[in-house]
From TrEMBL:
PANTHER family: ENOYL-COA HYDRATASE, MITOCHONDRIAL, ENOYL-COA HYDRATASE-RELATED
Gene3D superfamilies, per database record: 2-enoyl-CoA Hydratase, Chain A, domain 1 (3.90.226.10)
InterPro entries: ClpP/crotonase-like_dom_sf (IPR029045), Enoyl-CoA_hydra/iso (IPR001753)
Pfam families: ECH_1 (PF00378)
Name this protein carries in UniProt: Enoyl-CoA hydratase/isomerase family protein
GO molecular function: catalytic activity
GO biological process: fatty acid beta-oxidation
């Protein structure tokens, strides 16, 4: 398996493990898609950690030396405009598109143990909520140089950093070093390489000890409110707050009386 999924208590660790730089083959997108579905459906798992194997890279993105798979015999060009999730094809876009569309309200800590390039950076932005990084963990989106504009993560990046910074990265293909990632809050902390994973686990354990429903409410409100008008965001927040309090009251937690005792 080129992506490892391991559970320890209420924390699951997802490790990209494919060669020296943990590059993605087309098959790995489907593998990660299935792992994420399992992670979100498992109620015993409260928090995740996403990292790369080794110390050289978090993920170098798609392995451009790996072919996309067999093209349709009659209309090869159309394959690039109609996403494919067929089991017997490795065409892109495909499973990685479905993965990025997933709704996720269970937190994942990024243990960014090295550079994140291309698809590695895109998954880092999409699939992690708090990030601890090593000093050599730069971010790069070089897709424009390969005629792959639009696949460079600009839709995610511009939500995290000022537009001018996002344009600098995607239009020039420039790398952002860890100290700048910290400055623009793409990383929460930069730690010595050997401390990255232990620190991520420390943070994951803290979150895992909190009420899962409260964690979900905070995540859902935070994510959805960014795309809502102020009044709608406040209404959503109030609604989810009331549902959360009702759940605690029914369970007898935090001063409530369990319904089973009434």
């Amino acid at each position: 398996m080129t992506i490892r999924y391991e559970k320890d208590g209420h924390v699951a660790t997802i490790t990209i493990d494919n060669g020296k730089v943990n590059a993605f083959t087309p098959e790995m997108h489907k593998q990660l898609h299935d792992i994420m579905q399992e992670f979100m459906a498992d109620r015993s798992v409260h928090v995740g950690i996403l990292t790369g194997a080794g110390t050289k890279a978090f993920c170098a993105g798609d392995d451009i030396k790996t072919p996309n798979g067999a093209q349709p015999p009659e209309d090869a060009l159309a394959a690039h405009f109609f996403p494919s999730t067929d089991e017997d094809t490795n065409l892109r876009p495909g499973w990685e598109r479905e993965l990025r569309k997933m709704e996720r309200y269970k937190p994942i800590i990024g243990a960014i143990n090295g550079p994140a390039l291309g698809m590695g950076a895109i998954y880092m932005l999409n699939l992690t909520d708090i990030r601890v990084a090593a000093p050599h963990a730069f971010i790069g989106l070089p897709e424009i140089a390969y005629g792959m504009a639009g696949a460079g993560g600009s839709t995610q990046l511009a939500k995290h950093v000022p537009p001018a910074v996002a344009h600098w990265m995607v239009l020039l293909g420039e790398r952002m070093p860890a100290e700048d990632c910290l400055k623009y809050a793409l990383y929460n902390e930069v730690k010595p390489a050997e401390e990255v994973l232990p620190r991520a686990r420390e943070l994951a354990d803290k979150i895992a000890a909190l009420p899962p429903i409260s964690v979900r409410v905070e995540m859902e409100v935070t994510k959805k409110a960014m795309d809502l008008p102020k009044a709608d965001a406040l209404s959503l927040s109030a609604h989810l707050y009331r549902l959360q309090r009702a759940a605690f009251w029914a369970s007898g937690e935090y001063g409530g009386t369990p319904l089973s005792e009434e």
